[in-house]
Amino acid sequence: MTAPFGARLAAAMDVYGPLCVGLDPHPGLLRDWGLADDVAGLRAFSHGVLDALAGKVAALKPQSALYERHGAAGVAVLEEVVAAGRRTGTLVIVDAKRGDIGSTMAGYADAYLRDGSPLAGDALTVSPYLGFGSLTPAVEAAAASGRGLFVLALTSNPEGASVQHATGPDGTAVAAAVAAQAAALNAAELASTGGTLGSVGLVVGATTGDAAQRLGVDLEAVRGPLLAPGVGAQGAGVPELARVFGTARHAVLASSSRAVLAAGPDRASLLAAAQNAAREAAGALR
Ligand SMILES: O=C(O)c1cc(=O)[nH]c(=O)n1[C@@H]1O[C@H](COP(=O)(O)O)[C@@H](O)[C@H]1O
């Protein structure tokens, strides 16, 4: 069996720096790249990013929504991105933020986390807001195939606070309970593998300020990767990363989409922007 996702990601971050580049082919971005907002444009964008960055960054994160909006042909392009990751060894985090009741979650797990599925990258973003336990089929499928999950904990959008900052009957903040459940899964994985980074990550936006500390979200105890979107276009810079993550910063995978993609379509400029962002993130997090 292949090494667990957490171990593979830790190795990739050591080599390439703690940066994930998001593939977010918004209509405006396609236009800025001189491409039509259609499937041919989507494919040209995706292969442009792959040509420039595959094998040169720790991870790529295609945003499923922006592929789905082109219908089945768009999803086929997402499958090409997943296949290219497999070919080049670059980790692919499929950002589909799936979440559903257990039996339906099993369908998503089959689609995104099973060997042989064309949509199965190395990890999937999932939403625990139908109850963390509803993610069990995904947790089991990921563990069985050496894949990873990124569970939404403290998202970068301001609306997230109304749910994630709320407290349950025992006074624990929802985001803190999500983090504790991820921590328990990672503790079990690491006890059996002896590794240092588990495969159940959290999403904690770089824009969330001191929310983790205020809400008692124990990021250090998670012992899994902490995906930090919001770097660049959403206003968070490198200083915010150290502030948001404190002593857990060694586990952070900073994520940037628009700020890096704005350097394209020229391949060399795109690579330079990604490598610069990776260097800055490494400086702030190591
Ligand atoms: O899961 C994510 O990646 C994610 C979580 C979150 O809290 N906030 C967030 O912006 N994202 C994703 O990150 C990407 C935005 O990246 P930027 O263009 O760098 O702002 C989009 O694909 C979002 O869906």
From TrEMBL:
The keyword Lyase applies. It comes from the Bacteria. GO terms for biological process: 'de novo' pyrimidine nucleobase biosynthetic process; 'de novo' UMP biosynthetic process. SMART domains: OMPdecase (SM00934). It holds the Pfam family OMPdecase. SUPFAM superfamilies: Ribulose-phoshate binding barrel. One of its GO terms (molecular function) is orotidine-5'-phosphate decarboxylase activity. It is an enzyme of class 4 (lyase). It catalyses: orotidine 5'-phosphate + H(+) = UMP + CO2. Its EC number is 4.1.1.23. Pathway: Pyrimidine metabolism; UMP biosynthesis via de novo pathway; UMP from orotate: step 2/2. Belongs to the OMP decarboxylase family. Type 2 subfamily. HAMAP family: OMPdecase_type2. This is Orotidine 5'-phosphate decarboxylase. It comes from Cellulomonas cellasea DSM 20118. The lineage of its organism: Bacteria, Bacillati, Actinomycetota, Actinomycetes, Micrococcales.
